[in-house]
Amino acid sequence: MNDVKQNNKPTFNAKIGGELDEKAKKLKEKNTKYTKAYISLLFLGAFFADIGSFLDPSVSIFAAVICTFLSFLVYRRKNTENLSEQWTHTRVIAETIKSEWFMYVVGGGNYPIKEEADEEDCLKSLNSRIKHFMDEYKKKIHSVDGDYVESENVYIKSDSFSRRHKSLQERLEYYKTERIENQKIWYETSSKEMNKKIKRYNSSFKLVVGLGTLIGCSMWLNLWQDLNIPFIDNADFFSIAIAFAFALDAFSSINQYERLSIVYTKSYHDLVDSIQELNDPNNDISSNEKVFNEFIEDIENKISNEHKSWSITTSTKNMHIS
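Below the sequence we write its predicted structure tokens.
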């Protein structure tokens, strides 16, 4: 059920929600491309404006205006397509369906295992909830003029009955391995990735600002005067460095590396606590269906707190990269 990539980050590759995952991936890649493009063009606009005294002034200003204008067009296109909103709604529905599927197959939340229960009715209840979630998702995507995923693969088939018929111990072990441990590793790996990106961007920012300040001071003190190099004498490297540094900072802020690191770290610790609770011999999780049911629901609520927090992203038109 699970697959592990070379970077040791597990991915849930069940067919349930797979098409939604693929759609979200494409939206994220498109948003990232637009983001890099408009920030880079904005920097180039500032760059050409600052080296105007080295190039032909009319050429330099023309290049600066063109780059700035193109940056505006790309930024406008990015916002017009509402990629962040589409991505958020698509990721939330994908994770919501996966959560419902896990609760159903192991007997948690709204899908308790009962001897007298009619499994067909339980399955109908599950698919009814999924239909409701899908309808809400389509409305949200339609409201931002996006294209939603229309797929029958999000609905659960009766072949999921087999796992529900297994013993409580078997279902618990399956859920612990395939859901809790899987998500815990994913959060831990993702948190480390975000921290690395934060450090990389912070280091780059400091380096560029430091070099810009050093070059600016040396030019102010006329340390380059004896070299008699027009490009160095005339270009405003200090302003260029500052523009580049803030381009780096803008890209880091847009991708919300710091916020995501905090969210992933919290989710990781929540699941570590849940595993400790599960391993505690003094509880009835492994012997009582009702306690087990409530435990599963609590875990899914913890996971959903993370992916539903992505909706905050839409208020600033930002998107995380994972």
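Residues 10-104+113-316 form one domain.
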